Amino acid sequence: MSGPDLTLDDHEIPWTEWAPPDTAGADVAPPAPAAAFPSNWTLLDDVQLLDLPDPQWIIEDVIQRNGVGVIYSPPGSGKTTLVAGLLTAICLGRPWFGHVVQTPGACLYVAAEDRTGFKQRARAAKRAALAPLDQPIGLYTFPEAVDIRDGAAVQRFAQFLLAGTYRQPLVCLVIDTYAASTSGGNENSSEDTTLAMVNAQFLRDALNVTVILIHHTNAAGSRERGHSGMRGAADFMLSMTPVDDLVHLECSKQRNAAPFERIGLKLVPAPDGSGCVMRLASEVLASSTLTPAQSKAYFALQDTFGAEGATKAEWQKACHELAERTFYHVAKVLTEQGYVATLGTKYRITAKEPRP
Predict the structure, then answer these.
(1) Is residue 205 a contact partner of residue 139, using CB atoms and an 8 Å limit?
(2) Which of 8, 29, 51, 159 could be a cystine partner for 12, CB 3.0 to 4.6 Å?
(3) Which of 45, 282, 333, 123 is nearest to 347 (CA)?
(4) Are 324 and 330 in contact (CB under 8 A)?
């Protein structure tokens, strides 16, 4: 059998005979110079990578240093009250609900919606911290909205803040609310959300601060409102969920650490009665006192089913006035506190009686 015909066609050139074309005398443009690489480009080997500093915190395990975060909740849940206490703790360098303030410093609150309302909450927070009202603590307010979709406006705002004088280094910037700071935008738009988050990151980098956006939940109350691009770009996300007369503060995202344990809070009058502040629920509620929702569930189980008890489904059906999420939380608390016990699949009232 003969092999393949390897004879070259007339137009083919053997590879051993190839040579670059002779361009002598031809009008050939010189090669373009190589573009300079950005001065901050570098390569890190694995040892250099491990030598980089670990993520730092403003509030340990809660608020990341030099991050962009979101605090969101349904309307009327106490977001601004929480923020007033949060910023006061950072300015004073005092623990915040059991978490250490690792990077104290000045804070700026952008009152895009209601500067008068923040005045009341800041006063109550200072009173609760026993800080004299006539002595500055480093908490500053910018009483106007800044459109964080507008890059030029954000740059001017950053320049204004860089020109300011502060009692201590600025470490935290809160924008309340995201909606008021994106007026005319579409929260469900990928483009508008990306612009807003990129500009929030610009403020973070230009000012060397943590930026916190205050936002609302969706209609179902299950997550933040708007496009998922916000969650993707955020370094941390904190949710506030009203449960009965309490508020649960939970971490739904923490980029560089495990989520902190849920914090139970209660809105209570300030010491001088001038407003309200958030307190740890464990410090406010007596162990033998039931909240209204707990009382409803407790007496529904006692009065409807008596000594026989009920399955969780039966018990929940008898508590038709309580939202499903509230019922499951209340049932867990009543069981943990010893008012209700389980035997098989049944829940029964115990001998421990709540205080009226």
Answers:
(1) no
(2) 8
(3) 333
(4) no
Nearest to 214 by CA among 25, 73, 58: 73
Each residue's pLDDT tens digit in the chain (356 positions)?
444 554 555 555 454 555 555 655 566 667 777 788 998 899 999 999 999 999 999 999 999 999 999 999 999 899 999 999 999 999 999 999 999 999 999 999 999 998 889 999 999 999 999 999 999 999 999 999 999 999 999 999 999 999 999 999 999 999 999 999 999 999 999 999 999 999 999 999 999 999 999 999 998 888 999 999 999 999 999 999 998 788 999 999 999 999 999 999 999 888 777 789 999 988 876 556 788 888 899 999 998 988 889 999 999 999 988 888 788 888 888 888 889 999 899 999 998 888 76
User: What gap in Å lies between CA 285 and CA 276, rounded to an integer?
Assistant: 16
Q: What six digits make up the tokens of 214?
A: 């205050």
Instruction: Indicate the DSSP class of residue 16.
Output: G
- Unique residue bearing structure tokens 């403020």: 203
Sorted by sequence, the CB contacts under 8 Å of residue 108 that are 6+ apart come out as: 140, 141, 142, 161, 170, 172, 173, 174, 209
Take residue 136 and report the two structure tokens written for it: 């500055």
**Cβ neighbours, 10 Å, residue 35:** 6
- The Cα–Cα gap between 191 and 149 comes to 9
Peptide bond into 291 cis (omega under 30): no
Instruction: For the full predicted model, state whether its pTM sits above 0.90.
Output: no
